[in-house]
Amino acid sequence: MTTTEVDPRQAATPAGARRRRRGRGATRAHPALLLFPLPALAIYVVFFAIPTVQAVQYAVTDWDGFSATFSNVGADNFRRIFTADDLFANALLNNVKFMLVVVVFQTAFALLLAVLLVKNSRGSILLRALFFFPTILSSVSVAFIWKFIYDPNFGLGNRVLDGVGLDVQLAYLGEASTAIYWVALTQVWFHAGQMMVIFVAGLQAVPAELYEAAELDGAGRWAQFRHITWPMIAPATAIVVAYTTIQSFKAFDLILGLGGNPPKFSLDILSTRIYTSFANSEFGYAAAESLVFMAVIAAIVVAQRRVLRLTQKDV
Amino acid sequence: MQNRQINRRNLLQLLGLTGLAATAACAGPGSTGGGQGGGAAEPIPSGPIEGEISFAHWRAEDQQVFEQLIAAFVAQHSGVSITQDIAPSNDYQSTALQRVRGGAVGDVFTAFRGAQFVDMVKAGIFSDLTGLPVVDRYSAALIEPGASDGKQYGLPYQLVFNMPVSNLDALEAAGVSEPPADWDGFLAMCEALRGAGFVPIAWPGGEPGNAGHLFNSMVMNNAPSPDMCTKLETGEYSCTDDWFLKTLDQYAQLRPYVQPNATGTAVEPAQQLFASGQAALLATGSFHIAAVRALGAQFPVGLLSPITTSAGEARYEGIHNATFILGVNTASDVRPAALAFIEFLSDPVNAAVYANGTGQHLTVSGVAYDNPDLAATAGWLERRTLLAPRFQFTDLDIRNAVENACTQVIGGTDPRQAAEDAQRVVDQRIG
Amino acid sequence: MRFSPIRSVVLAVYALLVVVPLVVVVFGSFKTTPELFESPFGLPSSLSLRNYEIVLGEQNLDQAFFNSVVVTAASVALTLFVASLAAYGIARTPGWKGWLIFGFLVLGMSVPAQANMIPQYVLFDVLGLLDSRLGLVAINVVVGLPVAVFILGGFMKTIPREAYEASAIDGAGPFRTYWSVIMPMSLPSVAATAIFLFVIQWNDLLYPLLFIRSPELKTLPLALLEFQGEFLTDYPLLFTGVVIASLPIVVAYVLLQRYFVAGMTSGAVKG
């Protein structure tokens, strides 16, 4: 049995080109190449980056969002965020718990479904469309549905528990310590089908010959998955994990739908915290919170990439 | 060659960026037109009633009725056209100020009572209406939420009662002939209801916004002064004060009388519980009567507030709130027409069309309520009700924390613990 | 994957988990409000098309539908074009420069919408783009760029250098290579990105709510807000609207499926 170690970039790049790449800059790159990102950069800078800078420059002020005057407060907002804001700390903790559950389960389900439905048969296409459907719904609809699933008195959740003979009636969103996990479940239901699309695209790019060769060598299905599929879908996995993470940090509408506005303590996350700061006429503080928010996401995404790389190196 | 090309490109980019950075101050204070500071000093000019009016509000459910009224107004004043600019209430609260201050939207606009009204007055968006004849159409006591510093800036149009809605048939079935006048009576009533097979109180503890309506009634007679929430926000009062602890103890006594796992119940299931006749009280307010009717409830309804003291000491019998504060935009260029439209809405005849069509009471004097639910509860307009204290809070986090103490207590937390937890958040927000 | 009983069981269980909550919406579109609240998961008592008649008869709904289609189609197409150009440039710009551009563009995904929404409003006001479909397309492209660059960039980086070199040897310039070689190879990821963008932009409420005033320019989600009041929401009508609004996406999804054709990259790497 051969262990197939595949890194497509390494395999396909002759040593010479690699050496040249590490040499003096993009000597082989066509000058026109630098024009390619230009339209995107132009639009992005004018309509996105500049407005963002305009907003976050107030992070060192106490501007309320509409008055004609404000004053500079230096790093005061940041000091407050890190040492004197229990609500922010609570939101961060909730968000991290939420993100961990969502990332693990959403990625796992999306991958599982993609693997089971990778062939383009009619049945697979129909099922893929079905699993994708929840993503299309509006958050108001999703919140309504799950309010009725999680309702302790009429809800489907407790009725199912009753139906299978379990004598426990849960409070779901009413139980402060576990409420966020139930919302995480809703989020996974909402978006797993969307991430499945990325995995399908990634899986479809794996050449069939690799599986055929492995099969001839006698590799079983799990070995094939570990040594061929998992490394080859690395880009897709990276995308799904990063996107799911960011999506779970921005799960704003769903939290408001299930947790109220402003959300209750057990369901408050960072994006709703920022929203409430804006609503409390604390524009400067909200801008500071936004910067911390962006930094937290960036840090987590980078850490995740490291972890994922490790699992792929091992193979 | 290549490197020089890159450098030139970088330089151009840099120049472009600095040029654009010059506009970086653009989103700052005073950039969006109307920043006229506190000086809404220019009175509304008299002039021809014509032009295109934008009416900004958040009540999608009232759109048809407003269209009717608009048609009538336009019939009286040719040369005027009115479009409704409706945003959902959450979005209205967060974006209305920015959208309205420039004048593009909201020649006639509305504001929520509390923080939004205060902010909009500060931003100088409300025209001063003090002394204008239209103000006299309103019951003076009820339009206080639209006044600031002695000036009448806006007219709060809608009047609601944030008190539990009662199923009169259920009360009758349990042998309750008149509303209890004190706390023991209230508990006895709940006991009787439970005995008769009802859930005494359907309370939407899962949603802070809706769970907090009951808070109004629970503190109105316990607090040393009617502006107790303002004082909680400034630190003059504390959640660990005796009167608040007493309130929390009373919440604890309600535990057996709300539906099971009440802290997990959202407002729609709570409405269903009430509308289907399983619960005798819906602990929200008169604004849900229309929703409950839409769910098919056919029994007669009333309003019933728990009295948390003895009959003799009760200063207030219930809670009211005045909101949907109408105003004329200082940045509007059709202010005479805008004012005329507000005058039109303030006419009791037109107001009645609105009230009966949307199932709400109004602050306008002399409105005839034909809608049976409105007529049945109209008596409350004359009774001693307190303007809902929970909307005295301008900081949403403080409000959430204080009300959350009550929710936690119903969920089983010890009152003193809940009070301390709440006060910790309040202290952080104040300090 | 071979056809196996385990596979069927897993799929059946998951299908059940997905479908049961969905029936609330789909069945709900045939119910009245009392019926919906009383038995959200139950079958409707009759397949009454009353709600559909009301929603479809709503004034301006067909106009809203048209606006949504036009704005979304234009936004998705433009975003894909601009983002794929950028992703291509980044994939071919080795070293820290490529990473810098990529990081800069992708960082936009982590910015909360409320942070820059007011300055964007002011900017669009100054440029006269408020209350216009063009403005909506512009903001959609802007907001969609980080995601699109992220996904397309992620996939394009894995295209082996050989593909570019082969094309260069044939004398093709970068644009030719991009258009005739790389894009066809990237079709699965382009299709995936297209679906992503389609869903995000079709259902978007934030920007239409902020920018659009005129009733004839409203997009579909905005038009459906009519059913959502402050204290009284007509859920059956809302769900009917949601079902109607979801049909184009389902159609687009099924049509885009055929671009997920296996083996497009394998051909380029032979030998």
Notes on the structure:
- The complex is a heterotrimer of chains A (315), B (431) and C (271).
- Chain A is mainly alpha-helical and 315 residues long.
- Chain A is 69% helix and 0% strand.
- Chain A contains 15 helices and no strands.
- In chain A, α6 (122-136) runs antiparallel to α9.
- The longest helix of chain A has 31 residues, at 86-116.
- Chain B is of the alpha/beta class and 431 residues long.
- Chain B has 2 domains: 51-160 and 321-382, Periplasmic binding protein-like II (D-Maltodextrin-Binding Protein, domain 2); 165-320 and 389-430, Periplasmic binding protein-like II (D-Maltodextrin-Binding Protein, domain 2, 3-Layer(aba) Sandwich), CATH 3.40.190.10.
- In chain B, 42% of the residues lie in helices and 13% in strands.
- Chain B contains 17 helices and 13 strands.
- The longest helix of chain B is centred in the first third of the chain and has 20 residues, at 2-21.
- The radius of gyration of chain B is 25 Å and the shape is globular.
- Chain C is mainly alpha-helical and 271 residues long.
- Chain C has a domain at 69-215: MetI-like (MetI-like fold, Orthogonal Bundle), CATH 1.10.3720.
- Chain C has helices at residues 5-28, 33-38, 50-57, 61-91, 95-107, 113-127, 133-156, 161-169, 174-185, 187-202, 206-211, 220-224, 235-256.
- Mean pLDDT of chain C is 85; it is low at 262-271.
- The chains are: A mainly alpha (315), B alpha/beta (431), C mainly alpha (271).
Q: Helices, strands, pairings?
A:
The complex is a heterotrimer of chains A (315), B (431) and C (271).
Chain A: H1 8-12, H2 15-22, H3 38-56, H4 76-83, H5 86-116, H6 122-136, H7 139-150, H8 156-163, H9 179-204, H10 208-216, H11 221-232, H12 234-249, H13 252-259, H14 270-279, H15 283-313
Helix pairs in contact in A: 5-9, 5-12, 6-9, 7-13, 9-12, 12-15, 14-15
Chain B: H1 2-21, E1 51-57, H2 63-76, E2 80-86, H3 89-101, E3 108-111, H4 115-122, E4 147-148, E5 151-152, E6 155-160, E7 165-167, H5 168-173, H6 183-195, E8 199-202, H7 208-211, H8 213-220, H9 228-234, H10 242-253, H11 267-275, E9 279-282, H12 289-294, E10 301-303, E11 318-328, H13 335-346, H14 348-358, E12 361-362, H15 372-377, E13 385-387, H16 396-410, H17 415-430
Parallel strand pairs in B: 1-2, 1-3, 8-9, 11-13
Antiparallel strand pairs in B: 3-11, 4-5, 6-11, 6-12, 7-9, 7-10
Chain C: H1 5-28, H2 33-38, H3 50-57, H4 61-91, H5 95-107, H6 113-127, H7 133-156, H8 161-169, H9 174-185, H10 187-202, H11 206-211, H12 220-224, H13 235-256
